[in-house]
Design brief:
heterodimer, A: alpha+beta, eight-stranded antiparallel β-barrel, 51% strand
Chain lengths: 169, 295
């Protein structure tokens, strides 16, 4: 009898560790523009992981991977605003539960606790994470000089769309 | 049996916890993407010389440069030299993120120029790392000023060239350096003994004081600084400049103090008649504005 319990436990544990989902092609975009200036960027090389048993979810992106329409805007974004050399990555680490993700969002070296609505649905054995939310740039120490204050929004609206595939591990 | 059971349970729970702690590490695993180093310099020009930078694809750039009069030459009477300005205007365009073409006109010897600039190699980190950037730069310069020696001249006598290999490296976030060997070719030189080709080595750098303000400097060595002989002998000096870069969105303001006044490449690099040691220092500026023509 005990042997059977053991075997069941073993099987369960293998299942548990296999319930991890991963992508390195997460789509992230943001908009921090104003009526005077379009400031939009996107990337298709974000990473995202999800553990189905614990509900833990993580998203990470290289700041320099964001593509802007204008090369100079991209340079200014990295050089002057988010300081990508000092803070190369933005990340979220938290849990998904009841239609929301809740956890620590780190941008520009500053970490804030956030809780935002998100959907995580199962499609063809993959998990699809979709969320969009707004952050206040000042919360993350992103300074906007007075001269361009009317061109740049003081908030950024962020969109995430990631299709996470089961890891083969 | 019970002992074995509990050991196994412990082992298994250990495995499970491990798996969960490793979850976020998965984000950092996987291939490291190549990242091109950006903003080695703020401008496509350092002071007189070039940086490795070019405007992005579809970007039209306009640069207006002034070089004012000397401190020594009736300085206050000439309003700090501002009454005696030499100017150069430049219009250039980024055909791709690597290729840049432009034209310019400067008032010293009424020189018109055209140039081609190509980013051959770009400094990058990550998967396919490379330590330096290399940009190739060539300009052709046409002297518009009339010759005063009373001789008939071919049109080709008016033409000179400058070819440069610009090696640059962003050392840290705040410090960038440039080393640029170059060759200047004159179709016409003052005397029969004078070389048509002179070789130069430009050294330059910038140090960022804040996000948008940087100190810059450049100096160039020359293989030949004496032309002609006897009454027509001319002594030239190595160009030295120090300055401040101020970047405000689409503009880069570059203010500087240097011993050069000419603005076309062969003239400031190979035939600078002014010596800083003799007090010949000039204020000057470059102001650039970029326009995104094609997105």
């Amino acid at each position: 009898m005990k042997r059977i319990v053991l075997i069941v436990l073993l099987i369960c544990s293998t299942v548990a560790s296999a319930q991890q989902y991963l992508t390195r092609e997460a789509r992230l975009s943001f908009d921090a523009g104003s009526p005077l200036e379009d400031i939009e960027a996107f990337t298709e090389s974000g990473s995202a992981v999800f553990d189905a048993s614990s509900g833990k979810i993580g998203v990470q992106v290289l700041m320099t991977s964001f593509q802007f329409k204008r090369a100079l805007m991209q340079e200014h974004f990295n050089e002057n605003y988010v300081e990508s050399e000092k803070f190369p990555k933005a990340s979220f680490r938290g849990v998904f539960a009841e239609g929301a993700v809740k956890g620590a969002l780190s941008i520009h070296g500053i970490t804030q606790e956030i809780s935002v609505p998100a959907s995580l649905t199962q499609e063809d054995g993959n998990f699809v994470l979709v969320t969009s939310f707004e952050i206040l740039l000042a919360d993350y120490g992103v300074k906007i000089p007075g001269a361009v204050a009317n061109k740049i929004s003081n908030t950024a609206s962020i969109q995430v769309h990631a299709t996470l595939k089961e890891t083969t591990k | 049996m019970v002992r074995l059971f509990s050991i196994l349970i412990l082992l298994l729970s250990g495995l499970i916890t491990n798996a969960q702690e490793d979850l976020f590490d998965l984000l950092d695993d996987g291939p490291q993407p190549t990242q091109f180093t950006y903003a080695t310099f703020k401008g496509t020009k350092l002071l007189n010389g070039q940086t490795n930078e070019t405007p992005g694809k579809g970007v039209l750039q306009y640069i207006i440069s002034h070089r004012f009069g000397s401190f020594t030459d009736e300085y206050l009477y000439n309003f700090f030299g501002l009454d005696n300005a030499h100017i150069r205007m430049q219009l250039d365009y980024g055909i791709s993120d690597r290729l840049n073409v432009g034209i310019g006109r400067s008032s010293v010897l009424k020189t018109s120029d055209a140039f081609l600039k190509y980013r051959a190699l770009r400094q990058r980190t990550g998967g396919n790392a490379f330590p330096v950037s290399l940009t190739l730069y060539s300009s052709m310069n046409y002297r518009g000023a009339r010759f005063t020696d009373g001789l008939d001249h071919y049109t080709s006598d008016r033409v000179s060239y400058h070819h440069q290999a610009i090696f640059a490296r962003k050392m840290t976030e705040g410090i960038s350096l440039v080393v640029a060997p170059s060759i200047v070719h004159w179709n016409l030189v003052p005397g029969p003994e004078d070389p048509n080709d002179t070789y130069h080595l430009m050294l330059g750098g910038r140090y960022k004081l804040t996000q948008r303000i940087a100190l810059t400097g450049e100096y160039a060595f020359s293989s030949n600084r004496r032309y002609g002989s006897g009454a027509t002998e001319e002594q030239f000096h190595n160009p030295l400049s120090i300055g401040v870069d101020i970047e405000t969105g689409g503009h880069v303001f570059q203010f500087h103090l240097s011993n050069t006044r000419a603005l076309s490449d062969p003239l400031w690099m190979a035939r600078n008649p002014y010596s800083a040691a003799n007090g010949s220092l000039f204020l000057g500026f470059n102001i650039s504005r970029v326009f995104t023509v094609k997105q």
